[in-house]
Amino acid sequence: MTKTLSQGRYLHAKFLLHLIIAVTGIISVPLHILFSPDPSVSVTKFTIHSNIIVAIVFIVSAFVLLTKKQENNGLDLCKNAALIYMIIVLTTYHFILSSGGEYSGIRIITNFTLHYFTPILILLNWMIFEEKKWYSYKSIAFWLAFPIIYGVVSLLRGAYDGFYPYFFLNPNNPIPDGFGSYINVSFVIAGFTFVYCILGFLLIIINRGVLRFERAKQLRKYKKDNVIGMK
Predict the structure, then answer these.
(1) Are 225 and 109 in contact (CB under 8 A)?
(2) Calpha distance 199→135 (Å, rounded)
(3) How far, in Å, CA of 222 to CA of 227, rounded?
(4) What pLDDT is stored for residue 222 in this prediction?
(5) Crossing angle between the packed helical segments 73-92 and 118-128, to the nearest 10 degrees
(6) Could you say which DSSP state residue 44 is in?
(7) In angstroms, rounded to a whole number, what is the distance separating the alpha carbons of residues 179 and 171?
(8) Spatial CA neighbour of 196 closest among 127, 134, 126, 148
(9) Cα Rg, the chain, nearest whole Å
(10) If you average pLDDT over every residue of the chain, what do you get?
(11) How far is the C-alpha of 220 from the C-alpha of 84, rounded, in Å?
(12) d(Cα 179, Cα 167) in Å, to the nearest integer?
């Protein structure tokens, strides 16, 4: 009975956190765009796109938890993708982009929720609530799909109309307005791709390490119980 009650509280807490993450995205994304000095620029940002993905994934996950259904591997892969994207959003903004613009009014709050609050909640969710599974290294290709599509579309659009969502994707202007050349931009893209791969690799390694530890713990308990049973 106690174990069932504990499991119920665990699932309730997980559902509540998923709901907070989803609602934060549903509210923050449109407000951040609507109150932007140039909404047409805001909608091109990786932060906006990745937070939309996060909101959709966690709405679906919250619904699955609410209906007491089993989360499938596809949903787990999407939540891991969301974790990787949010780590990139937080670190890229904090270390590269945070000094590049001023925010006022409601966008001070939405800037914080999109770049810091949501990424931290997703990391906590992964640490506390997500079941660790044995993912294939091929999963990294799945997690890379969206960033690659985003980068290709951004470069193609920039070549067509001259607009680039970030200065480091702009080969036409010198630093700080651009990155000087296609060679420089290709190094940036290669660097981001490498970071995505490393994050994916670490995610898989940590998942496998936790699984090995849990299996070893269960095996020790099983052997101990057998020894006690034989006495």
Answers:
(1) no
(2) 13
(3) 9
(4) 61
(5) 140
(6) T
(7) 5
(8) 148
(9) 21
(10) 90
(11) 34
(12) 6
33 token code pair: 């765009």
Helical spans, DSSP H, in 35-138? 39-42, 46-66, 73-92, 106-112, 118-128
Amino acid, res. 17:
L
Both tokens of 5, joined, read 């009650």
Cβ atoms of residues 114 and 32 within 8 Å: yes
Closest CA to 170 of 153, 182, 161, 187: 182
Angle at which helices 73-92 and 46-66 cross, to 10°: 150
Kindly give the residue spans of alpha helices, DSSP state H, lying in the chain: 2-34, 39-42, 46-66, 73-92, 106-112, 118-128, 139-161, 182-230
> Cα-Cα-Cα-Cα dihedral of 113, 118, 124, 127, to 10°?
-160
Compute the distance between CA of residue 17 and CA of residue 164 in angstroms, rounded to an integer: 35
For the stretch 175-214, pLDDT in tens is: 878 888 999 999 999 999 999 999 999 999 999 999 998 8
Residue pair 81/199 in contact by the 8 Å Cβ criterion = no
